[in-house]
Amino acid sequence: MSRRTSSAAHPESPPVRPLRADAERNRQRVIAAAQELFARRGLDVTLDDIARHAGVGVGTAYRRFANREELIDAVFEGALQHLIALAEQALAHEDPWEGLVQLFLATGQDFADDRGLRQALLESTHGKDRAAAARERLTPAVSAVITRAQQAGQLRDDIEPSDFPLIQLMLGAVTQHSRNVAPELWKRYLTLILDGLRRDRDHPTPLAHPALDQDEFDQTMT
Amino acid sequence: MSRRTSSAAHPESPPVRPLRADAERNRQRVIAAAQELFARRGLDVTLDDIARHAGVGVGTAYRRFANREELIDAVFEGALQHLIALAEQALAHEDPWEGLVQLFLATGQDFADDRGLRQALLESTHGKDRAAAARERLTPAVSAVITRAQQAGQLRDDIEPSDFPLIQLMLGAVTQHSRNVAPELWKRYLTLILDGLRRDRDHPTPLAHPALDQDEFDQTMT
DNA sequence: CACCAAGCGGAGATGCGATCTCCGCTTAAG
DNA sequence: CTTAAGCGGAGATCGCATCTCCGCTTGGTG
């Protein structure tokens, strides 16, 4: 966690004056509250909500973060770094295919745990620029994992790096709908997709999650 | 209330009710405009928009359709019947696997062509009841197609009927994001998923659509 | 053709919910 | 103790969708 976002970001303060202790404390509270609410309810939560959750007045929230964008940036830098670390770990895995599987699983889990992250990175609605910048930082490591699995003859050759985020997008759609009923259902479909991604296979891989039963299904789809 | 929609199971049968000629004409215009706007821009379009598109006053729209629900029902009955017909055609296909593939393709195309249909049937946001009722009418035929493909030893056994709509949901997510750039991209991922669904396969099936190039990718994901 | 109720248009009333400001009060810091 | 930084949160403002109301138009009938 960084202290002040950056030195050259505020229009109202040429010299960077340190915040008063209580002010800095409140600032952190707001970020923490935003993190939690973004994760649980998405990027559309109101600043009023975040402020209330943080236990500060609305005015305080608006004083520190002129707009919602600043707040989102402050919150998601950490999540982005985590994703990058995951890709590098995947690349370090001894087996290329298993590394790819790990990457799908770990990334999918991050997205499953954080609705705001899904929106920021996978959905177009909230800020094109941030998503583009984030993906630019992620692409190299992800591409390397994919290429390595192809060179090992384990991943089909007609897959490209751009397929990775689109597959995550598909899984995110499942997560989004089943989150309250079967939060790990996305793993079922990931297994299916992985069986499609494998270059050769004679038997289906056991699915990672059972199908929804009637009740779960109704709750998920309605 | 005693209009035609209430007891009408058939959209084509006006059960004797005096509606002045110009009124009936306007009613049809509103339905046509709604169909087009729902398909293109989703179920959230305002009734004002629909009225303007239909070339009638807002008052006229509200006079015929007390609420948006009535209008949606009037518009989607036809689409639903088409989906049911598709499932029955799939069941009539001589090869069970090919029948299933056809069902995925044809249904996916309907969804790709109609954003409103995706929202009404796949997303929870707009009216649980309609979606549930629609799925109830669809399930029997879809289940039959799936079961038949499994009995023929072509579809893996651990798939269940509830997987069908969830796979369509995933494809719908791709469609939603790529619609302006590569409207058929969803077929790429359908091929992948089908390769995962097949019971046995030694070689990957050629993908139905090329991966996005850099420009297309940027436009899709941002 | 004459008549009139059915129908029409669309401005605007209503409601809702988010954003952001303002100012009197509180408190950290020197 | 002094004082300016900071606080809270009511409420002003804005935007936007829903739905109504009423004076005018028109189809259908005798």
From TrEMBL, chains A, B:
Which residues does the annotated region (Disordered) include? Answer: 1-23, 203-222
Give UniProt keywords alphabetically. Answer: DNA-binding, Transcription, Transcription regulation
PROSITE patterns named in the record: HTH_TETR_2
Q: Which sections of the sequence are annotated for DNA binding?
A: 46-65
Q: What's the domain of life for this entry?
A: Bacteria
Q: Which InterPro entries match?
A: Homeodomain-like_sf, HTH-type_TetR-like_transc_reg, HTH_TetR, Tet_transcr_reg_TetR-rel_C_sf, TetR_SbtR-like_C
Whether Iron-sulfur counts among this entry's keywords is no
Q: Where is the composition biased (Acidic residues)?
A: 213-222
Residues in HTH tetR-type domain copies: 24-83
Q: Output the PANTHER family linked to this UniProt entry.
A: HTH-TYPE TRANSCRIPTIONAL REGULATOR BETI (PTHR30055:SF234), HTH-TYPE TRANSCRIPTIONAL REGULATOR RUTR (PTHR30055)
This protein is called TetR/AcrR family transcriptional regulator
Source species of the chain: Actinomadura vinacea
